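TL;DR need structure tokens for one chain.
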Amino acid sequence: MQELEKKLEYTFRDPGLLSEALSHSSYANEHRASHQHSNERLEFLGDSVLGFVTAEFLFLHHPDLPEGDLTRIRAALVCEQSLYEVARKLDLGRYLKLGRGEEAGGGRTRVSILADATEAVFAAVYLDGGIGAASALIHRCLLDAEKEEAVEERRKDYKTALQELVQRQADQVLTYQMVGEAGPDHAKVFQAEVLLNGSAIGTGTGHSKKEAEQAAARAALTALEDR
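>> reply
TL;DR here they are.
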């Protein structure tokens, strides 16, 4: 645990909180006799702590943005994919406590499990060190300038932008189709293709079909703008 604390840049006064934050329900169910708690309650609390810290950050750093834009940026910052990226950076999957079935099923790399554990860790730091310690960790992991720029990029709706571009001419038809997928069930990568009047104009990949379509639309926008 000391190795993870070093990555978190935080030392727990109560190491049991960090241990609980890393305990998946499958592990807790297998260790009921030892009264092992899962991280689900911490995840619940961590979601609120993360939401507050992120809302405060955006409110203070973007005084001119309306409520709607603040809400959209916050949603992108605290989404499952964003939390999964934090977990990967911390190598959180390495420290998870999983039940035998979840372990065998690839739980250490499962997006939802890693995202939930990230929120649980935020809550553990909050309970151990207060809102200041939790806020400092969340800022280091999520709210630096580089991360915010990445989120701004992610929240753009390339499909809508592409639709608006092609509709400048009459009788233009856009369609999307899945052309491939790879990887295990818990870490699928999808490949999508966007067609204009039946001809392919862009392809893209993503961890969901929607993400792949957005990537394809982005590629198509770049191709059309370069013509």
